[in-house]
Amino acid sequence: MIKGIISITGKPGLYKLVSRGKNSLIVESLQTGKRMPTYPHEKVISLADITMYSDNGDVPLPDVFQKIYDLTEGKPVEVKAFTRENDMRDFFAKVLPDFDRERVHNSDLQKLFSWYNQLIASGVTEFKDNELAEDRSAEAAEKADETETK
Q1: pLDDT for residue 24 is more than 60
Q2: What is the SS3 assignment for the chain?
């Protein structure tokens, strides 16, 4: 699950949220394992809150990562293998056929594949928030039980 994985503008790589301080967040680099604080002036965003443009609305990044994972069978994406500029876009079209070709730039795809590779390298293979689905299922079951007892 990538809910606790964040990107910090101006800093390379991805980070795992470890703790919250009084005026900072404590994060741990997925690549090095080094912990450090982030401060309110730094732009921090959870990967779970990012979406990709498509012709049919925005697609959550966890869904895109899951599609890449399924397509590559859990292997990293070889970005250097994309020798022509359109190779990367052609590959991404297999992942998300209806992606918005005007608003999704190659730099976006490079960052997406870089993040995906970092997640895979750090052992993250579950991208969707299963806890939320489980909570909703439990709530539905409780409502059904209440209905039956009335």
Answers
A1: yes
A2: CCCCEEEECCCCCEEEEEEECCCCEEEEECCCCCEEEECCCCCEEEHHHCEECECCCCEEHHHHHHHHHHHHCCCCCCHHHCCCHHHHHHHHHHHCCCECCCCCCHHHHHHHHHHHHHHHHCCCCCCCCHHHHHHHHHHHHHHHHHHHHC
